[in-house]
Amino acid sequence: MRIPEENFRAGEINIVPLIDVIFSILVFFVVASLVLTRSEALDVNLPDATTAEVRLQPDVTVSVTAEGQIAVNQEKIADISALIPAVERILAEKPAEGRRLVVINADLALSHGKVVEVMDTLQRVPNVSLAIAARRPSSNR
To answer: What pLDDT, on a 0 to 100 scale, did the predictor assign at position 50?
Structure first.
């Protein structure tokens, strides 16, 4: 009597699920990095400055639109008198040592007087350094 030989199949590794997992992890990190680098400012038309340089992430971003609307970290405030409490509240939520950086994003069409008014108001907040946002002009102009 002859015993039939068993068909021996070599084991296989299916890499399709592995590729799916790697792709899912990649998507997670891309989305996470976009959330971490989000801008906390309104969409304003910034003036060009050839000496503009990249700075560290600001503690607070104050945006002023062409219409004079003020926003602190994308949260619109009623008027200039509410600016100091809004900035102090955000700075209290982010404890840090030393001077804090507040960046002003003022629209290009905004009057100079309004920018000075916002800067003067922000100077009353203790331990705050002010910076004005600008963008580098594109080289094809």
So the answer is: 65
| Residues of the chain where predicted confidence (pLDDT) is lower than 50 | 140-141
Residue 102 exposed, middle or buried by CB count within 10 Å (0-12, 13-18, 19+):
buried
Those residues with Cβ within 8 angstroms of residue 46's Cβ, 6 or more apart along the chain or in another chain = 105, 106, 107, 108, 133, 134, 135
3-state secondary structure the chain: CCCCCCCCCCCCCCCHHHHHHHHHHHHHHHHHHHHHCCCCCCCCCCCECCCCCCCCCCCEEEEECCCCCEEECCEECCCHHHHHHHHHHHHHHCCCCCCEEEEEEECCCCCHHHHHHHHHHHCCCCCEEEEECCECCCCCC
The CA distance from 119 to 116, in Å, is: 5
pLDDT, residue 141, reads 45
Tokens representing residue 74 in the block: 């994308």
